[in-house]
Design brief:
By secondary structure, the protein is α+β, with helices and mostly antiparallel strands. The chain has 11 helices and 27 strands. It has helices at 6-9, 56-59, 116-123, 126-133, 146-150, 159-198, 263-269, 319-326, 329-336, 350-354, 363-403, and strands spanning 3-5, 10-14, 29-32, 37-38, 42-43, 51-52, 64-65, 70-73, 75-77, 87-89, 96-99, 103-108, 141-143, 153-155, 209-212, 222-223, 232-233, 238-241, 250-251, 257-259, 276-279, 281-282, 291-294, 302-303, 307-310, 346-347, 357-360. The strands form 9 sheets. A 5-stranded mixed beta sheet has the order 16-25-21-23-19, with helices on one face.
Length: 406
């Protein structure tokens, strides 16, 4: 199977840097951002949507996307890139969607030689992703430039063979996506349960107490540690949670980077499953101040400097309730985002985090919610295990497809 550089068959258009002040409450025009590209190459414009004035569809028509356009993530976290180089096909559903910065649009030069669905699959191949990972070094943020992105080599069989491969992988991928969607539906149902039990957290129709976060802490907020490269070890060290580990809800102790540090440092930066980690800074405005739970572990764990440790006073508030509260979209928009700085690297400091308003229902009500959460977790665990098996099967198919043996 012949290989070509992506630049031979594609060009790339960068997105427009829309300002946060451009966004409106609702419209038929949305911004396509990094967060709309989901793991596995799923396009989800409904994920934390950002609306722009409908007049922008004409004003910025050069950035208007259409159904079937292939867009790709061009920015990620340096220490743990999960979305860097991930492609997805746009679905507009009749809405105006404008290409934002940090997302690029691949423009096929000759559609008689390249199938866009095949191109999506080959760019999502682990070998291609590994090529992009080599740019993941140094600093907090990594960006794929146009030349870097287009320099990758991909296998390019005849068009008919591309379509055959794409059809097989589409069918296999559909199974994975359905399982992933089922997991996301569980999360949506849990959010709906939260609203049903506690009411809208902003309007507070049930009249619960509203207090500042600072009054609910067992100890003061603390930012994590920075350790130089020479302290990192492959084994025998203390697992350390980095910012890239917190973007998927719950930190799992497995596969964390390890550092060799003193007992005093471990004691100072230790975290448990009773703590919540808050992203102190983020490449995206949406990621700043994102809350994350820590899974129970038999070994010590610490956290790095881009995170803040939040230790709830368990007599007043339970960690899992507080986690769901802080990640509620309405809560974020009303009580958290006003404290987030607007810059290239968005963030929140400890003083402002302490000021965040928190809804405080009785502990018994919180405990009942957590009982429901536990049932959802068990079902989610089963679905996640099934998804993991489907992922392995899909990787096997990818390997065969792009080695010419499918």
């Amino acid at each position: 199977m012949i290989k070509v550089k992506l630049s031979e068959i594609c060009d790339l258009q960068n997105g427009y840097a829309f300002k946060s002040s451009d966004y409106v409450e609702n419209s038929n025009t949305l911004s396509c951002r990094m967060s709309n590209i989901r793991l596995g190459g799923i396009f989800d414009i409904e994920y934390n949507p950002r609306f722009l004035p409908d007049s922008f569809a004409d004003q910025y028509k050069g950035f208007l996307l259409k159904d079937g356009d292939l867009v790709i993530a061009m920015t990620d976290l340096a220490n743990d890139p999960k979305l860097l180089g991930v492609p997805t096909l746009v679905q507009t559903d009749g809405r105006n969607i404008l290409l934002n910065q940090r997302v690029g649009k691949l423009i096929i030069k000759d559609s008689s030689k390249v199938d866009n669905k095949y191109l999506q699959h080959v760019l999502n191949d682990p070998k291609t992703r590994e090529y992009y990972r080599k740019f993941a070094s140094g600093g907090l943020q990594i960006n794929l430039g146009k030349s870097d992105l287009l320099n990758v080599e991909i296998p390019l069989p005849p068009l008919a063979e591309q379509r055959r491969i794409a059809s097989i992988l589409d069918q296999a991928d559909e199974l994975r996506q359905k399982r992933q969607q089922a997991i996301e539906k569980l999360d949506q149902l849990l959010q709906a349960t939260f609203i049903d039990m506690f009411g809208d957290p902003v309007s507070n129709p049930k009249g619960w107490d509203l207090v500042n976060l600072e009054s609910l802490l067992a100890k003061k907020l603390i930012s994590g540690a920075y350790f130089p490269k020479e302290t990192y070890v492959n084994s025998g060290g203390v697992p350390m949670v980095h910012m890239g580990d917190v973007f998927y809800g719950v930190v799992k102790p497995d596969n964390l980077k390890q550092v060799n540090i003193s007992n005093e440092e471990i004691k100072k930066y230790k975290i448990t499953n009773k703590d919540i980690l808050i992203a102190r800074r983020s490449l995206t405005y949406d990621g700043a101040a994102k809350a994350c739970l820590v899974e129970c572990s038999n070994q010590d764990m610490i956290f790095e400097s881009s995170l803040i440790r939040l230790s709830p006073n368990l007599v007043k508030i339970l960690p899992e309730f507080l986690y769901h509260y802080l990640n509620n979209n309405d809560v974020r928009n009303k009580f958290i985002i006003p404290y987030i700085t607007k810059s290239t690297i968005s963030g929140i400091n400890q003083a402002n985090l302490n000021k965040v308003t928190v809804l405080l229902p009785p502990l018994a009500k919180q405990e009942k919610f957590i009982e429901i959460c536990d049932k959802f977790k068990q079902l989610g665990k089963t679905l996640t295990q099934d998804l993991s098996k489907l992922d392995e099967l899909f990787k096997s198919l990818q390997n065969q497809a792009f080695n010419g043996t499918l």
